[in-house]
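Give me structure tokens for this 214-residue protein.
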Amino acid sequence: MDKLNVVIADDHPIVLVGVRELVERDERFCVVGQATCSNDLVALLDQVRVDLVITDFNMPADSPYGDGLKLVEYLKRHYPSVQILVLTMISNPLILTRLQELGVVGVIQKCQLHDEIQAALKAVALGNPLQNSGPQAVSVIEAAALDQRFAKLSPKEHEILRLFISGQSVNDIARGLNRSAKTISTQKISAMRKLEVSSDQDLLAYCIERQLFN
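Here you go.
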């Protein structure tokens, strides 16, 4: 049987090495490339035949392909035959639901990488869906707020929501934008007030349902 070609994408070199080592233990797979950003990942997909992409959910997003949900949506739209396995540290059920809706073959929590990668590869090789452990996905909540509220956001609030919906925490956003976590939290709360949502889940539901950051 021909081996399945794999590309691994992660901006942390240690993770790249670790995932590659785990994949290469399975003789059914062959690692044909590595990427540290979405630009490199897309370039590889254009150059070689790839059966499976194993990609981090959060990567440097300063490219037209972005990261997180935006990147997965791009990959599914432009490379529909390529299977996608997502590595992440996030556990928000709304984001997990959206990933399932997009058709990824599985989501693996990085903290359980060594325990789950072999099971994930086996499922991919056999064409079976991966049964993920951890938080279970739930139906996306129907947000009642009017879309006009979104226009009230300031540019800074808009950017913070874009990063938040990609899976970044307040602390992650603060580090990336070189601001204090308190400032980011205050601006996020202000945005939530303008959208008239009272929880992170409602905020994610509002943005995902309306595909505001696609």
